[in-house]
Records
---
Amino acid sequence: MIGEYPLFDSFCAAVFMVGTFIFTLGLINNLFVYTKGSGKGLGQAIKEGAKVIFSRKIGQVMYAVFESIFHPRLLKEDFLRWLAMVSIIISYVGIILVNHIKAAGMPELDKISNLSLFFYSPFCDIYFLRTVTEASFNTIQAVYAFLNDGFGFFILVVGEGILIWRRFFKRAHIFRMKWVDIFIVVALGGWFALRFLAEAVTILAFNVPDSIASNWFVAYGISKVISPLGLYWPDFYIITWSLSGIALATLFASIPFHRKLWHIISAPLSMVVNSLSEKKHVFSKPEDETAFTTRQLIEIDACVQCGICAEHCVTYQQHQDEHIVPGDLIAAYGQKLRQKYGFFSSLIGRDPPAKIDQERFAKQLYTCTLCGRCREVCPVKIDTRDIRISMREDAVRENFAPSAVHMAVEATKEERNVLKYPNYDRIMWAEFLDDVPESAYLNKDKAEIIYFVGCMTSFSPAISTIAESNLRLLYLAGEDFALLGEEESCCGFPLIVGGASQDWQWLRAKNVERIKKMQAKKMIFNCASCYHTYTHEYKELLPEVEMFHSIEYLHHLVTKGKLKFKEFKAKVTYHDPCDLGRGCGIFEQPREVIKAIPGIEFVEMPKNRKLGTCCGGGGDMEMVNADLVNEVAATLVGEIEKTGADIVISGCGQCKRMIMNAIKAKKAKVKVLDTTELMLEAGIEFEAKD
Amino acid sequence: MAKYKDVEMPGDLYYFNTDNHVWAKIEEDNKVRCGIDQFGQKAAGTMAYVKFKPPGGKTIKGRPMGTVEAGKYIGPVRAPVNGTILEINQEVRDDPTLINKDSYGKGWIALIEPDNLEEDFKDLIHGEENVQAFLEADYKKYEEEGLFAEEEDK
Amino acid sequence: MIRLLDLNEVSYLHSQTIYHAVAYCTTPASPGTIIILRPREPYGCVGYHQWLEKVIDVDYCHQKGVPIIRREVGGGAVYLDSDQLFFQCIFPVNKAPRRVDSLYKLFLKPAVNTYRRLGIDAYYRPVNDIQVNEKKICGTGAGRIEDASVVVGNLLFDFNYGEMARILRVSSEKFRDKIHDSMQLYLTTLRRELGYVPDQERTKDILIKEFEQLLGCSLYSDDLTSEEQQTLASMDKKFTDPVWLYEKGGKKTNWIKISADVNIVESTHNSPGGPIWIILRLKGDTIDDIVISGDFTIQPNNALANLGDRLRGQPHEADPLLKMIESFYKDQGIESPGITPEDILKAIMTEKY
């Protein structure tokens, strides 16, 4: 070590070591929470993770790492925010690398062990600028210096500059600002601002020649500005570097303690873990420690409250209530989980949240249609929909879910549907059909196709015509099909999304038993939510049964040339049902089917396909806030009206119901039809069945 | 007239002890006219859509002869007698809110030709005292358990 | 000639004590008596052999103001209120069938026929059930009290499933939920079957006529004799006496009967790897529903739920079940330190009904 400043020489490194120690404590605290996941335990997950690294999935992992650095989703959202993020990420990585490489090659730091070098390297310029001479300074050193200040510039001016402008001048943040937000902005760039100052002071204190100093171009510029002050620079040399050392240590130590810093670690981790996971919901059991899987616990930490979920949330749009969006709820849960399960925090112990807060919290949890649009836009690819369901499962487990959920469960126990409507009259709607004989679809011992109608379509007077048109279609097509009739039970969707994780399986068992008895090979659904539930949760029990939404079936008929249409002049648009579109990936078939009708002028909704707007009818939100549901539907109808279409087509009865109500309320001049209803209205002719 | 808070149930009508509270009246030629009473419409909310079995359809006492939909509520309208539907109120089909606004008058739902009027009516609640007791018991239960539909701006 | 005591609404206490009093006053020369009544207030009622504190959540009942009676007839705990119409048959021993099953079959016939007259496809299911579509639609009890054979039952117009589950003392809330579920599945009422609640007076008239038809003579209306009144007073005292109510029970079983052939139990079995906890519902000898869980490690994590699914519908017999559990372990690759298939089998077979 250079003898001149013995104490000071190690000060910054020492402070940084202390900061790292605190960081490690925080790290242990946070990681411990991840051991509380249900589903696969942490040990199992790590074992499986290790297997994957050496398999083909390595490509997915590498892409996930790429995404966590370059954030393609964020680029789509907002260029400036993306620029800020990527600048900060790349610059930090760059600075760390540059300084480490430089420090490793510095003779002044020769005597430091490799491990300790980590703590000295951020401050290597303390020593370097002190002893540099024209002789010893080469091109590589110039490059290091230039990169150092260049990266620093990007962090402060580009990255922080954009963030500060956005938060304090444009006021574009969704969530209310707290003191800690200001602390983070200051901490993130503050240490570097101090570092620039320190470099500048060093240049002045040791009279570093211009030809060398100019490579640290920012510091050089600053040194020229402050030089006229004529202060005793060696003193300030010690002060400024020490301050920057304390600032860096503070920043590093703070990382585990707030999600806006911790996400530096948790977000890439979450994105990699997600790239390896099955996209399947794991239902929590009463004996699980928490309602979340290990993966979800990591995801919860990855949220940085960027607010992009809110910007795309049609429910949020109505009243700007920040407490209903994932960014707020996930943060609240993260805090709750860490308080309860963090390694150190669990030792302190905390009181459970007060009852009144639980009730408010419960209402916010259920004020969501589970449309999944937030999931499409989250820059760190959190599966917000899946986590929401798990949070609701937590509410049910801890007994603070809204009473409507409990009532829905009770209703299914009595009548196997959430409306508590006498299930034996489930096919009362079919009594209105004169043109289809009962023997074609009822009281059959077996059938090739089962048409699963679903509760809403069966019982709701508003949309039972959808069941009629589907039935007619199957009959006219000459299919061997049957209804389950009064043996049809609710698919379980309202209970699943309500968080009643163990109360729906018996309904599935009843349906599966019946379907197997009928020896069906195919099933057709008219409801997007039933279709979503069957393809995601029933498939494992009915592996040999092919499942189709009625739109897929229509598409099949059209592409096989089995359907011919008469001309039908209308301007038509299509509303993507969330559970069918985003949920199951069915976007193009309905469009192709509609466009196959001659005379139709097809217009797209302004937001369509993956970014389509929700009708408001899903996610059990109707149970807790019917007014809000209507407002969301009204927003959708507004968008429909803007297209100028006469007719809007949907592939889900619940969507049709919501849109019908909103059209009535707004007195809009639009008609809404289910796809099968459009087919029949357009006048189809069937080719003879071969 | 039986009355409790904001619900009235005329004493000359017969009431069916079932979800949705159906009222029934014997008209000339022993035909039965029925609808949903004020308690039932308050419990369900503002009616938006309705669907009933068509004339000629058979009714089974206690089983649904139609469905009403009010906002988020979807519930059965149970037939008070075994018989055959003679007429369904077209006005209610066009404007379901008549069930809310004029439950016993323009909001009537079906006219039925009963198979066994006397026998079937034995299960219906009738008479001031009985009707009052019936109304109060159900009203209190619904209030306590929060089962009434939320008030909407009419 | 057979007596009819048509008592309309009586206090909860009298809904039990009156027939006891009549039974105690019965001699070989007494006419038979049919009592028909409804309790004014809801209450819980446990059987003769039951140890009240072990069966009922006494704190909850006190808090809610729900009284509890222990009767002198056997059977299980029930929650009764004015939505049920009680019929109580008291006959001298020599005038009634000897065997309990014949006793039930005879005296439940009027109730079965009454249900059928109301439009329900009810039938008698041995030993002591009336069922519709394999669901129980009545409560029954029978026994001997001194010189009288007694058969009691009720017609269920409606039933409070929630309170019934709530007043029971259970070892876990999960078990309470399961009991509630089981009742929803296997216990029904007139309201559920018909869609409406028939008029109680009319139903009572039908029931009385059915009794007359069964017994082959008309029933004459009567009041309690003075002797019976006196005995009633002492029965009232006895049944409100804590010494009687809280007397330690004899026969102990963990099984809870839902209907004639449906029973449910909760049990724990301590194995080397940790306690295994089972909730088992049997329908006859078949596993109708089973929940297996426990405080031990098992991989994969959802193995127990899947095993439960696999065992549903299987006979409750040791050997075939063991084979099933073993093959499940094999093809799912189950790892559970300290827990073997034998341990799980033991847990399932702990309580043999």
---
Amino acid sequence: MTITPGRVRFALALALVLLLEALCRFGTINRFAMIPPGEILWDLGKILAGRTMWPAIAKTLTNVAVACASAIIVGVVLGTLIHRWRALRETLDPLFAAYYAIPVYAFYPLFIVIFGLGDMPQVLIGFMLGLVAVIVNTLNGLDRVPRALMKTARIHRLGPVDAALQISLPFAAPYIFTGVKLAVAYSFIGVIGAELIMSRTGLGYEIGFAYNNFDNAVMYPLIVLVLAIAASVNTAFFMWEKRLLARRRR
Amino acid sequence: MRALRAAVLIACILAGWQLLFWWAGESALTSPRDTFAYTLELLGSPTFYPHLAETGQAFAVALAIAISCGMLIGFSLGLYRFAGEVGEPVLVALYSIPKITLYPIVLLAFGIGMPAKIAFGALHGIVPIAIFALGAVRNLNPVYAKAARVMRMPPAQIASHVLLPAAIPELFTGIRIGFSLTLIGTLLGEMFASQRGLGHLLMQAIGLHNVRVIMALTLLLVVIAVTASALLLTVDRRLRGRATGTV
């Protein structure tokens, strides 16, 4: 068996989990602080087998999906529009550069006041976190469309919408995909973070609720579940991107 | 020209804010003028100052930890190729998970108060700084490291005398991004795990539905974050310009 980075990574992760298991079992880590990883998995199985947690899971995933999809669609459309107007773009550039320094959660209270404590504030936070990443990467991709391609579009008398849909956006797809990946990660972060701060349902809410009740048998499995879902969705997009890039290179 | 554009942008944002105020009404948000006035009032009041100082202190310590640990991780993974291949996907995965779900664990480990806030801030900042440091070290011209090895410099000295100066522009970009994320992390930490600080005030204001305080704090945080980020961006561009010899 050869030593590959992937195998070493797996071995290290396994060693870490076993170490945690041992520390918990021998009481070095207090049971009130953490329960052993084996037990977390067992509890997670029990939670998933029961019915009580599924509505919260569905709620969170739906909100993440809505936030992410709208960030991607609005981001690509806005990016394409902004790319056409030079003055607008130069005016907005400083905003884009400073955008991710703004603590978006600071707006969450405001959204609750405006929209009430429904799904809207959480979705909006996820949307806002993802939007600018998509816009910036769309602009970056559209900057790289070769002039010859745009000339071809003009020769074929394509209107601006057709030219964007058939030529410039497909060309910029790999760059836009970078934005899409960030939007996926950011909408998870935004929605679940907002749920933790204040909400009525969702995985983030359930984690906070379990924490406040010292209910480690629910809290740890849910944390693991959130991390597992986020990590696998992100990895899936990463693999998809790799496949797309490989096809393009042929 | 750039100042003019910034002025136009700020004017547009203020106009949008005012329109939103007219549309949504006083129970939802306060007008730009009232908000600025109240923010100044807050800044002048003696009860507010300790909160600001508390947040600043927590943030400074968290940033120091994030930078030193992030650099250490990035450098060690960048210097050893195999370690980098093992570690980089882990860092990228850590960057994209919602770290906010880890706050109960941080609280259980550190208790409520200053250490938990600092840990939460540092937790957000370490990963991007490490990722950029890793990239910076890996993209260095290999001749530098070879020359240093030929001169039999010890590894610590290679890092401090050769790699660090050469990698500074890239490292600084990491620090700039780490700066923003550490600030967000510290504030989030305060929202959950604290009896003092701006995050705590914000959480308290949500509970009391105190729109004036919410708006003033939001404005203050945005102004601080944007100013700091603009300054760091200017330094960043200058460093990069110097590295490519255009300034």
---
Amino acid sequence: MKGTLRLVSIGGGLVLWHALAVWVIDDSVLLVSPLVVVAKGYEMLFVTADLYPHLFASWWIFFYGMILAALVGVPVGFLMALSPLVRDYMAPWMTALYTTPRIAFAPVILLWFGIDIGSKIIIVFLGCVFPILINSFYGMRVVSREFVEVGRSFRLSEGRLFVKILLPASVPFILAGLRLAVGRGLTGVAIAEWFGATEGLGHLIFFAGQTLNMPILFVGVAVFGILGILGFQILKIIEDLATPWKKGLEAN
Amino acid sequence: MQQRGLRRGLLSILGGLILWEVLTRLLLENELLIPPPTSVARSLWKLSFAGELNRHLYATLFEFTCGFSTACAVGIFLGYLMGRYPWFDELMDPWIATLYSIPVIAFVPLIIIWFGIGLFSKIVVVFKITAVAIMLNTAAGIKNIDPVWLELSRSMRLSPWETTAKIRLPAALPYIITGMRLGVGRALLGVIVAELMAANEGLGYLLRDASETWDSPKLFVTVVLLAAMGMGSFSLIKKGEQRLAPWRESAEW
């Protein structure tokens, strides 16, 4: 029952979309049928294979941006959680950077770093770093007092306490932060590639938009959607693997 | 404790600004790359006097408010239906989930083709982004309602309408606010992107204009204004969240 309604919804939506595109609008500049989109996607993947350069270009920007964000976000988040001094001095700048729409920084970053891959990575980095940082911060803050007290009563040194208790306890939070960062990172990729890029998925979408090429535009949007869902699911699996105790807790 | 944090925060901002000013004046001396804060302030003053700034600011605020308020109304309504009726939830869910997982930016070219380059397309961008976030959260709030409250409403013999108005919606309110908070940031991003791509007014347009004419002070003015808008809307919603759901440890950022 549950599955059927879902299928009906997807099927019905697609049929509606097709009907709207073919009989109501009937203008390939405004809307194309999902069949055309699938055909175009198939062609770009397996016939002409011209989707791959864009995919790889975007992938590397995304990958480096995420790695950089994790390398910076996790330690800074920990530092802010463990030291009130660092926290108080950093907080206003973090708030400002976090709440400003990221696109505002894009022209500034381009001005400083040029239109190389470096500035694109930084734009992705800016998007990803905050969810990671904030989650690391909270992970470290909400470690159960009992765990810390157990560590204290075993006379763990500060360093051992960190490695044995604080770090493992905050792993689920860091992974959740990474998962949240995927979506923001993809948005970052799109923003970055829109400014002065010659390839990449973002470039593909904007170019298709400007040349009113609907099939390619929809393929680009769909690829972004698929990547978003895929990244989210993969990190979810990693999360379950890395924190097996959480699953037991949920089952209880 | 709170006071000390505030004092340090102010100190940090002030120190940062002074450092920025000194470094740019002494070391870089290149207004194009990083203008010192004072010339940003001067540019802000000049632009706001010319009335140019107000026009752009109003345009962006107008687009944002229109889109956001319609999104709240529609999002809460549909979210309520999704929370109440499982069949409706299943009908909507695949499409909502897909819409939610595609980056905002990817939709902007499409929306501009469909709705033109005027105010309306930006309102649609804000609407799309916010409505989805609010819908998902409202549905979760309605679903997670404590059954005890529903029993209470039954023993008080509340009519279905009263149950909705007095029990279900208030119970979902914290969730709805969270949806709004999630929507605000993304919607602001969306509207700026849409303005950057195709518009003749608004802060996004100003951003593009400034970066294309290499007017760095103006560029930084826009960045500062956008930061102010982001922080303002964020802290407003956070205040609302703290009032409506004080039991939740709300995000510090």
